[in-house]
C-alpha cells in the first residue's frame, strides 16, 4: 500500500498516458511509480559499444602486432601476436599476452 506525499491519502493504480501510475484518491495527485508491482517493463537497449570492449583473444587478431618468439607448446620460434592488458592495479605495468599463430596457445608474460 502506498500513500500520497501531499496529503497522505491512499494511492490507486491508474493508467496515465498509457503507462502505469499511482494516483491519490483524495487530492488527485499523481505519484512517481517506484513499486515493482506497477513498474512498466523497460526494454533495455543493448549498448553496441559494450560488445566492442570484449576482446580478449578472439577478434581483431590481424590488427595485432606480431613477433618471433619461442612457443613452449610448439617448442620452437613461431610468429606470435602480442597485446597488452591492464589486469592488475593501474599503477602496475600491464601484462603482455602472446598468442602463437601456429597452435593458438595463449600465455602471458610480465614485463
Ligand atoms: Zn493526495
Ligand atoms: Zn605454438
Q: Which key phrases capture this entry?
A:
111 residues, mainly beta, N-terminal domain of TfIIb, 2 domains, 4-stranded antiparallel beta sheet, 3-stranded antiparallel beta sheet, 1 helix, 5% helix, 36% strand, rod-shaped, binds zinc ion
Describe the structure.
This protein folds into 2 domains: 1-39, N-terminal domain of TfIIb (Single Sheet), CATH 2.20.25; 61-109, N-terminal domain of TfIIb (Single Sheet). It has one helix at residues 48-53; strands at 11-16, 19-24, 30-31, 66-71, 76-85, 95-100, 106-109. The protein is built from 1 helix and 7 strands. The strands form 2 sheets. It has a 4-stranded antiparallel β-sheet with strand order 4-5-6-7, with no helix packed on it. The chain has a 3-stranded antiparallel β-sheet with strand order 1-2-3, with no helix packed on it. A hairpin with a 5-residue loop joins β6 and β7. The chain is mainly beta. One zinc ion (ZN) binds at residues 71, 73-74, 78, 100, 102-103, 105. Residues 71, 73-74, 78, 100, 102-103, 105 line the site of one zinc ion.
Unreliable spans are: none
Order of helices and strands: EEEHEEEE
CATH top level of the largest domain is Mainly Beta
Number of helices: 1
Number of structural units classed as domains: 2
Shape: rod-shaped
Classify the beta-strand content into a percent band: 35-45%
Helix percentage range: under 10%
Chain-averaged pLDDT:
79
Head-to-tail CA distance between termini: 61 Å
Q: Return the CATH topology of the largest domain.
A: N-terminal domain of TfIIb
Structural class: mainly beta
Number of strands: 7
Amino acid at each position: 500500500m502506498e500513500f500520497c506525499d501531499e496529503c497522505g491519502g491512499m494511492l490507486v493504480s491508474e493508467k496515465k498516458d498509457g503507462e502505469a501510475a499511482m494516483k491519490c484518491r483524495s487530492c488527485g495527485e499523481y505519484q512517481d511509480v517506484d513499486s515493482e508491482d506497477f513498474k512498466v517493463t523497460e526494454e533495455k537497449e543493448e549498448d553496441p559499444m559494450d560488445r566492442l570492449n570484449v576482446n580478449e583473444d578472439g577478434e581483431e587478431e590481424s590488427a595485432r602486432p606480431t613477433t618471433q618468439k619461442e612457443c613452449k607448446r610448439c617448442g620452437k620460434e613461431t610468429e606470435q601476436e602480442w597485446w597488452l592488458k591492464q589486469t592488475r592495479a593501474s599503477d602496475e605495468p600491464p601484462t603482455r599476452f602472446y598468442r602463437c599463430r601456429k597452435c593458438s596457445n595463449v600465455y602471458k608474460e610480465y614485463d
